[in-house]
Amino acid sequence: MNFTNSENLYKEACEHIVGGVNSPSRSFKGVGGGIPVFMEKGKGAYFYDVDGNRYIDYLGAYGPIITGHAHPHITQAITKAAENGTLYGTPTKLENQFAKMLKEAIPSLEKVRFVNSGTEAVMTTIRVARAYTGRDKIIKFAGCYHGHSDLVLVAAGSGPSTLGSPDSAGVTKNIAEEVITVPFNDIEAYKEALQHWGDEIAAVLVEPIVGNFGIVEPKEGFLQQVNDLTHEAGGLVIYDEVITAFRFMYGGAQNYLGIEPDMTAMGKIIGGGLPIGAYGGRVDIMEEVAPLGPAYQAGTMSGNPASMSAGIACLEVLREEGIYERLDKLGSLLEEGILKAAEKHNISIQINRLKGALTVYFTDKKVTNYEGAENSDGELFASFFKALLNQGINLAPSKYEAWFLTTEHTKEDIEETIAAVDQAFEKLSAL
Ligand code: PMP
């Protein structure tokens, strides 16, 4: 495959844009370097780069693109919004309509507020939880990503009873010391953290089904215990559903798992491909937010008609009968095909899959937490990623990310992908 135009654009980008990319995960750093491919257009399950190469897309823009690229219903909604003016700085009917839709789908959202990114949504839930409880500290789980606000760019200390340290330059030690990080799926570690810090904890931040070290489901009973123990300690439970809301069913992972948090942060899919974030939860907690309460949060672009229209249109598509069954069926075909090819070429892999989202880990051990994902083979993944890219199959350039299917992928796309995976594994087995 020829990547000349991407190479030239990347060179130019590096002169003007820091690192040549506007989000670090788009660089190929996670796969040992290389030239990120510049895309030009997308339609359905495919996107096309500036050299005219076609790819089957499993990146899904890191999650938002679940109905495929340029879905006509969403495109029409965005066009109509643009024709009527993209921003007024006043409330609109669309915001009411979309808020009602979200509340109907996810009953724990008694009140919501729209923002512009997942980062903003999570950051605000933490502020509101602190306002409500009058406490400062939060607990999060190792390897989970919650956006780039200071408070969540904190690395684990040496154990569940130790405070965190900054995970990014520019995050102060004082901020890091407000965060305790424990391993996911380890209830004993969670109890230990609460024993030390329970009466200072404002909230626990949870990806109820993890998407950020691959797809990892909670062990039976884990999240219920987290809920119960946190409430006993006087803290709140915040679900970060930025990836999971509307990914596995029409609703959140909380509907899927049958557990309700006090607050939820969302983003990605609910914007139908335009910038969005939203948070919401129990009415007594949400009433802490300005203008009703003392916790401040605002946004010039928040609830803008284009994002609202795209989000409403996207949920209208997802509400159609059989959508998630279809994603599950395609996901299952893909999983089976990849496993078969791995067996044929004697490659050790594990696949974690839920419906239309899966992760292929190069390891022979089941992955249930960050440590497991970290210990999977990154070099093999990098070779796999590049072998697939060269056959027109586009994954996220990191061993920690998921493959996301869309409603537009077909059985034929899956078959083409499995054939490419077979060839990639053949190459890997010769390394
Ligand atoms: N939370 C989770 C679980 C995420 O996966 C992400 C982004 N990948 C975020 C928050 C941040 O969202 P955004 O990139 O829209 O700021």
From TrEMBL:
Keyword Isomerase: yes
Modified residues (N6-(pyridoxal phosphate)lysine): K268
PANTHER family hit by this protein: GLUTAMATE-1-SEMIALDEHYDE 2,1-AMINOMUTASE, GLUTAMATE-1-SEMIALDEHYDE 2,1-AMINOMUTASE 2
Pfam families named among the record's database cross-references: Aminotran_3
Chief location bin: cytoplasm
Protein name: Glutamate-1-semialdehyde 2,1-aminomutase
Oligomeric and partner information: Homodimer.
Co-factor(s): pyridoxal 5'-phosphate
Keyword field: Cytoplasm, Isomerase, Porphyrin biosynthesis, Pyridoxal phosphate
Gene: hemL
